[in-house]
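Support request from a user on the community tier.

User writes: "When I paste my structure tokens into the form, the page sometimes reloads and wipes my input. The last time it worked, I copied everything first. Here is what I submitted, just in case something in the input itself triggers the reload:"
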């Protein structure tokens, strides 16, 4: 019975989300105003086949990570998110776990900044959602899974990045990442996934272990970033890190001063980059 209720709820919520509200193209013939399964799969980072099986009751035990991703993609309210967890026979994450819930107000902010690169991360620097402009600027990260979606993990395990630092900037950036992560770990000492990631990073990166053992603590500062884009080349953008204290979220916003070369390159990315993303999807 729970599986049937879960499938019905997913279908009902999928039908009410308009593609354009989720930053997706709306061209072509559509039988319904809501999201297709393939579109929900894209937004949530889950296979369309798995969503089909969930809706049809053939899959009955989604993980907490899958439920959280579906709640974000479907733009559920706090009460709806809690209901979805219970339908999946899971306990909604408590206050001891790093929050990963996007409130409707944060989602509306993302909707209104469609022409600005914006990414939202939790306090542990796991990328929760990024708008198409962010993906066009920084590279499509929708295929990343697990710790790969964590900014600290990517920085200390050598994963590819379009950001370019001077040696001094790189050292300061690494220190800021570890300082921010330590402060987050202190706020959520019972978060097992966070503890596991820290333990694995200490074993994989001597630099991370060195900074972690040094006890650095604080906040990651963001002012500007130089990005090497494959189509428009280097551009340096203002980088503002906005903090939503109520939900412990980080909103990263990239912008350029009007009339500058960087602003023109960002405009080109808004045309070329998002078109490429649509073609790949």
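"...and here is what came back when it finally went through:"
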């Amino acid at each position: 019975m729970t599986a049937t209720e879960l499938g019905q709820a997913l279908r009902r919520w999928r039908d009410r989300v308009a593609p354009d509200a989720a930053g997706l193209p709306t061209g072509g013939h559509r039988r319904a105003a809501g999201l297709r399964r393939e579109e929900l799969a894209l937004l949530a980072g889950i296979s369309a086949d798995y969503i089909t099986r969930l809706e049809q009751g053939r899959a009955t035990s989604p993980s907490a990570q899958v439920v959280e991703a579906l709640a974000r993609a479907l733009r559920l309210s706090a009460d709806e998110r809690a209901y979805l967890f219970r339908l999946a026979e899971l306990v909604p994450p408590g206050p001891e776990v790093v929050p990963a819930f996007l409130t409707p107000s944060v989602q509306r902010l993302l909707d209104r900044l469609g022409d600005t690169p914006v990414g939202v991360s939790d306090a542990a620097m796991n990328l929760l959602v990024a708008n198409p402009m962010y993906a066009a600027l920084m590279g499509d990260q929708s295929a990343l899974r697990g710790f790969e979606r964590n900014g600290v993990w990517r920085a200390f395990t050598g994963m590819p990045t379009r950001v370019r630092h001077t040696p001094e900037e790189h050292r300061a950036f690494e220190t800021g990442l570890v300082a921010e992560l330590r402060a987050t770990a202190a706020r959520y000492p019972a978060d097992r996934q966070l503890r596991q990631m820290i333990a694995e990073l200490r074993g994989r990166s001597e630099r991370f272990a060195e900074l972690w053992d040094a006890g650095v603590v604080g906040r990651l500062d963001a002012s500007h970033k130089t990005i090497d884009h494959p189509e428009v080349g280097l551009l340096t953008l203002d980088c503002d890190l906005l903090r939503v204290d109520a939900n412990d979220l980080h909103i990263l916003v990239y912008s350029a001063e009007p009339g500058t070369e960087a602003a023109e390159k960002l405009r080109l990315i808004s045309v070329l980059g998002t078109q490429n993303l649509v073609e790949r999807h």
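Agent notes: The reload is a front-end session timeout and is unrelated to the input. Residues 276-281 have pLDDT under 50 and may be disordered. Strands lie at 118-122, 127-130, 163-164, 224-229, 233-244, 249-255. Escalated to web team.
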